[in-house]
From TrEMBL:
Keywords: ATP-binding, Cell inner membrane, Cell membrane, Hydrolase, Membrane, Nucleotide-binding, Translocase, Transport. Residues 259-278 are annotated as: Disordered. Gene3D superfamilies: P-loop containing nucleotide triphosphate hydrolases (3.40.50.300). The keyword Hydrolase applies. The keyword ATP-binding applies. It comes from Pandoraea eparura. It holds the Pfam family ABC_tran. SUPFAM superfamilies: P-loop containing nucleoside triphosphate hydrolases (SSF52540). This is Phosphate-import ATP-binding protein PhnC. Coiled coil: none annotated. Its EC number is 3.6.3.27. GO terms for molecular function: ABC-type phosphonate transporter activity; ATP binding; ATP hydrolysis activity. Residues 5-253 form the ABC transporter domain. One of its GO terms (cellular component) is membrane.
């Protein structure tokens, strides 16, 4: 069986010679739900963006395969990246919804890479596709909000809409980059519950980056820990004791052990910020699908 994600000798160097990723090697099997943890600056978000083909690694031997197909190799993103990315649902910390559009339209943008270009430009969806979007919203518990503007939703509701978008997309892999970092504890719990249910019920492969070790232990059997761009632990989440974390991270371990007090205290009663609203349908397509390479 091919790995869902296979990473070999992945290195990324930014300006000034700082290595954000250093010879990272990692395999994730289909149907796994894996936590990616690390203190600020450890390389979690950089690694997630490489997995999705948003960023090219350094030009040296190594690469990433998604479901048996290379998405980048030796520092070059493959020409077929958009086709491969159809199977990847990326969930951002800031939701990436278009605020002025109804929730259901935001969810339907998950189909844009799979429909003819003329329909993607005009945002034309069939009754069956709209019904699928309503079913996805019902699955994440916000079907009653389908026709509200996305900007009126709370942060937790917007994140659940983003998860519904990945269901409509038909993604086989979900990459969730700090999906609960700006949510209050109850909203964070609901979002993590939804990710776990999607992993279990739809057999989706899920990689979720987190600051909170207790959340990783609660939801993921396996945790991969990054420190200064290197994998320093890959094993059972249950083995991540405070003593082990202190050995791995030193003083930064307190950030992982006490993050709840900082990142999840925000009230979720008011609407959250959404992505900048695009000027036209094509820009909305690029924003929603995150197809532009950075």
């Amino acid at each position: 069986m091919d790995e869902a994600i296979r990473i070999e000798r992945l290195t990324k160097t930014f300006g000034g010679g700082r290595r954000a990723l250093d010879e990272v090697a990692l395999n994730v099997m289909p149907g796994e739900m894996v936590a990616l943890i690390g203190a600020s600056g450890s390389g979690k978000s950089t690694l997630m963006r490489h997995m999705a083909g948003f960023v090219a690694a350094d030009p040296q031997p190594g690469g990433i395969e998604i479901l048996g197909r290379p998405i980048q190799r030796d520092g070059r993103i493959v020409r077929e990246v958009r086709q491969i990315r159809r199977d990847i649902g990326f969930v951002f910390q800031q939701f990436n919804l278009v605020g002025r559009m109804p929730v259901i339209t935001n969810v339907l943008t998950g189909l844009l890479a799979r429909v003819p270009v003329w329909r993607s430009l005009l945002f034309r969806f069939t009754p069956a596709e709209r019904q699928a979007a309503l079913a996805a919203l019902a699955e994440v518990g916000i079907a009653d909000l389908a026709f509200q503007r996305a900007s009126t939703l709370s942060g937790g509701q917007q994140q659940r809409a983003a998860l519904a978008r990945t269901l409509v997309q038909g993604a086989r892999i979900i990459l969730a980059d700090e999906p609960i970092a700006s949510l209050d504890p109850e909203s964070a719990r609901k979002v993590m519950d939804m990710l776990a249910r999607m992993n279990r019920d739809h057999k989706l492969t899920v990689v979720v980056s987190l600051h909170q070790v207790d959340v990783a232990m609660r939801y993921c059997a396996r945790t991969v820990a990054l420190h200064q761009g290197r994998v320093v632990y890959d094993g059972p989440s249950s083995a991540l004791t405070p003593d082990l974390l202190r050995r791995l991270y030193g003083v930064q371990a307190s950030e992982l052990l006490n993050e709840n007090s900082e990142d999840t205290e925000h009230a979720d009663a008011s609407p959250r910020a959404v992505s900048p609203e695009p000027a036209d349908a094509q820009a909305a397509f690029l924003t929603s699908m995150s197809l532009s390479l950075t």
